[in-house]
Write a structure and sequence with these properties.
single chain; about 40% helix; alpha+beta; Aminopeptidase; 4-stranded antiparallel sheet; about 90 residues
Length: about 90
Protein backbone atom coordinates (compact mmCIF):
# COMPACT_ATOMS: atom_id res chain seq x y z
CA UNK A 1 0.00 0.00 0.00
CA UNK A 2 1.36 3.41 -0.97
CA UNK A 3 1.20 6.15 1.61
CA UNK A 4 1.40 9.77 0.46
CA UNK A 5 3.05 11.89 3.15
CA UNK A 6 3.42 15.24 1.42
CA UNK A 7 1.78 16.63 -1.67
CA UNK A 8 2.91 20.13 -2.55
CA UNK A 9 2.73 22.32 -5.62
CA UNK A 10 5.68 20.56 -7.24
CA UNK A 11 6.71 17.59 -5.02
CA UNK A 12 5.12 14.40 -3.73
CA UNK A 13 6.69 12.29 -1.00
CA UNK A 14 5.30 8.73 -0.98
CA UNK A 15 6.35 5.27 0.07
CA UNK A 16 7.87 2.98 -2.52
CA UNK A 17 7.92 -0.79 -2.79
CA UNK A 18 10.02 -3.42 -4.51
CA UNK A 19 7.94 -2.68 -7.61
CA UNK A 20 9.80 0.66 -7.79
CA UNK A 21 13.29 -0.81 -7.28
CA UNK A 22 14.50 -0.13 -10.84
CA UNK A 23 13.65 3.57 -10.58
CA UNK A 24 15.23 3.84 -7.12
CA UNK A 25 18.31 2.00 -8.44
CA UNK A 26 18.67 4.68 -11.13
CA UNK A 27 18.76 7.35 -8.40
CA UNK A 28 21.31 5.34 -6.39
CA UNK A 29 23.55 5.14 -9.47
CA UNK A 30 23.51 8.94 -9.70
CA UNK A 31 25.00 9.02 -6.18
CA UNK A 32 27.97 6.72 -6.74
CA UNK A 33 30.45 9.54 -6.09
CA UNK A 34 29.01 9.68 -2.55
CA UNK A 35 28.84 5.89 -2.24
CA UNK A 36 32.54 5.73 -3.14
CA UNK A 37 33.27 7.21 0.30
CA UNK A 38 31.79 4.16 2.04
CA UNK A 39 32.26 0.40 2.11
CA UNK A 40 30.11 -0.25 -0.99
CA UNK A 41 31.28 2.12 -3.74
CA UNK A 42 28.88 0.90 -6.44
CA UNK A 43 25.11 0.95 -6.37
CA UNK A 44 23.29 -2.34 -6.89
CA UNK A 45 19.75 -3.65 -6.85
CA UNK A 46 20.75 -5.67 -3.79
CA UNK A 47 21.72 -2.43 -2.03
CA UNK A 48 18.33 -0.91 -2.85
CA UNK A 49 16.47 -3.99 -1.59
CA UNK A 50 18.58 -4.14 1.58
CA UNK A 51 17.84 -0.48 2.36
CA UNK A 52 14.12 -1.04 1.77
CA UNK A 53 14.11 -4.10 4.03
CA UNK A 54 16.11 -2.35 6.75
CA UNK A 55 13.77 0.64 6.84
CA UNK A 56 10.76 -1.68 7.08
CA UNK A 57 12.41 -3.79 9.81
CA UNK A 58 13.13 -0.63 11.83
CA UNK A 59 9.52 0.53 11.53
CA UNK A 60 10.43 3.29 9.12
CA UNK A 61 9.50 4.28 5.62
CA UNK A 62 11.40 4.17 2.34
CA UNK A 63 10.00 7.03 0.30
CA UNK A 64 10.40 8.35 -3.18
CA UNK A 65 10.53 12.08 -3.82
CA UNK A 66 8.55 12.69 -7.00
CA UNK A 67 7.79 15.72 -9.12
CA UNK A 68 4.06 16.14 -9.60
CA UNK A 69 4.56 15.00 -13.21
CA UNK A 70 5.53 11.57 -11.79
CA UNK A 71 9.31 11.84 -12.36
CA UNK A 72 11.35 10.34 -9.51
CA UNK A 73 13.82 12.92 -8.17
CA UNK A 74 15.27 11.19 -5.12
CA UNK A 75 14.56 9.08 -2.08
CA UNK A 76 14.32 9.42 1.67
CA UNK A 77 14.44 6.87 4.47
CA UNK A 78 12.79 7.68 7.79
CA UNK A 79 13.39 5.49 10.79
CA UNK A 80 11.68 6.01 14.15
CA UNK A 81 14.24 3.63 15.67
CA UNK A 82 17.16 5.87 14.70
CA UNK A 83 15.33 8.95 15.96
CA UNK A 84 14.61 7.23 19.28
CA UNK A 85 18.25 6.15 19.66
CA UNK A 86 19.50 9.65 18.87
CA UNK A 87 17.21 11.21 21.49
CA UNK A 88 18.71 9.00 24.19
CA UNK A 89 22.29 10.02 23.32
CA UNK A 90 23.75 12.85 25.45
CA UNK A 91 24.38 16.10 23.58
Amino acid sequence: MTTVFIRGNSLILRTVTANNKEAIFWVYRQCEDFLALGPEPKASLEMVMKDMETSQHEGGYFCGIYHTDGHLLGWLISSPLVLKENRTQPS
